[in-house]
Design goal:
By secondary structure, the chain is mainly α. It is 79% helix and 0% strand. The protein has one domain. It starts with a helix and ends with a helix. The mean pLDDT is 87.
């Protein structure tokens, strides 16, 4: 109804980014402490730095953006008549 594809995509990506960021904030400390406990069972182990967790968080956020953005572009470019036909 007059909104551009970029505006629709930006809105949907932003709305889906918030739950992903919340999940990253909640899950990162849990994953850090769980992996520390698991690695304590081994005599030779690696050190887990913040760069590893920051990189994985960035990858997850980028993956969410690509997934949601691709679907939003596909839906925004489609003809609304096809969606309304089944409503």
């Amino acid at each position: 109804m007059g909104a551009s594809t970029a505006a629709i995509t930006r809105l949907l990506v932003w709305q889906f980014s918030l739950p992903v960021v919340v999940a990253i904030v909640i899950g990162t400390p849990i994953a850090f402490f769980a992996s520390q406990v698991y690695l304590d069972f081994f005599s030779n182990r690696i050190e887990l730095g913040p760069l590893l967790f920051a990189g994985s968080a960035l990858f997850v956020l980028l993956l969410a953006w690509v997934s949601v953005g691709g679907q939003a572009i596909k839906v925004a470019r489609s003809n609304p008549v096809f969606a309304l036909r089944y409503e």
